[in-house]
Structures are given as structure tokens and as C-alpha cells.
């Protein structure tokens, strides 16, 4: 067990462009939380995981950051048991910091930005469009840094490799996200346009950003 852990640590720290990837991952995590705060304030939709977590945090009467950390901690135990290869610095940063960063900036916007900017058109739509696009870019930085995935994202991969081996991963991922949306609806949430746009644009933008980073960042001398 100890030898296996040492090997994993050696391989992890010796991966190509480790420092660049670590910096890029932290930038991605910070701005995911930052732009997520705007999406929360305008309330026009987020990704399925955030939608469920926001709904459940309101239902149980605890902060978004606390609930996200609690749920991710439970899922993290399963990842440790069945999918350790998905764990990295990015896993910890995602599960611990994004929710609290979003909570902090939501609090800050309440103190500094008049509420009507988040509730009245056209400012609400403009903030939503910009925040959604920049949130997806931030997710792309995080994903393409390849520093580990969140416990939420690791679970469908574990299911695909260990349980549902004959089912295409894309089908498993769609069903997984749909189940998460359904849980949010059952606890009083209302899905809207943001979830649809996230589903349509997240994959393509991650690919485009990944190609850009591969050409201009990770291959730099």
C-alpha cells in the first residue's frame, strides 16, 4: 500500500508541465467560484451539480459552500475506495474551495452591487451570458490542467469502469446528470436555460481551450 502510494506520488509530481498545470488548475478553480457567484445571483441556471447542490443547501438551511463540501466528502470516500487514479490536487481544490469562493462573492455582491442589476432585464441577461461563458472557460482550464477531477465527475467514470461496463460512457454521464437534475427538482428546484446551455457548450469549449493550451502553454519551453 505504501509502495503504491509512493509510486503514485512520484508519477503525479513528475508529470510534464506540472507547475504550469498546477497554476492553471488553481486559476480555473478560483474563477469557477467567482463566475458561479454571478450565475447564482441572476438565477437563470447553472450546471446540473450546482443546481442540485444549491437546491439541497436551501432545503437543509445551510450555506452552499458547507453543503458542497459535505456532499463531496461523502463522494470522496467512494473515490478513494474505487477510483484513486482520479484523485489529484484538483480534486481537493474543487471539493473544498469552489463553494466557499462562490459564497464569499455572493455576499460581496450583496454589499456592493444594487440588487436590480441581478433581477431586471437587460442587465440580468447580460450578466448571465457573460458569467456563463467565462464560467465554462474556467471549467475548461480546470479540466485541461489534468490535475484530478471532482468527486462528482469521478463517480460516472467509476460506474462506467466497474459496474456498467457494457454501456457507453456518454449514456452513463447523461443519465447521471439527469438523475442529479431530478433530485434537484424533487427538492424544490426549477431547472432553466442555464442547464441546457451548459450541456450544449461545455464539451466543445473544453475541447477548443484544450487545443489552445496544448499549443501555446504546455509546449512552451
Describe the structure using short key phrases.
10 helices, single chain, 221 residues, mainly alpha
How does this structure look, described?
This protein is mostly helical. It has one domain (17-216). Helix content is 78%, strand content 0%. It contains ten helices and no strands. It has helices at residues 2-13, 18-42, 48-60, 64-82, 89-112, 116-119, 123-144, 151-162, 169-186, 193-216. α3 crosses α4 (64-82). The protein is globular, with a radius of gyration of 18 Å.
Concise structural overview:
By secondary structure, the chain is mainly α. 78% of the residues lie in helices and 0% in strands. The model has no long low-confidence stretch (mean pLDDT 84).
Secondary structure topology:
Elements lengths: L1 H12 L4 H25 L5 H13 L3 H19 L6 H24 L3 H4 L3 H22 L6 H12 L6 H18 L6 H24 L5
Helix pairs in contact: 2-5, 2-7, 3-4, 3-9, 4-5, 4-8, 7-10, 8-9
The number of helical runs is 10
Please tell me the overall pLDDT.
84
- Percent of residues in β-strands: under 5%
Q: Name the helicity range.
A: over 70%
- What is the element string, with H for helices and E for strands? HHHHHHHHHH
Low-confidence stretches: none
Shape: globular
Structural class: mainly alpha
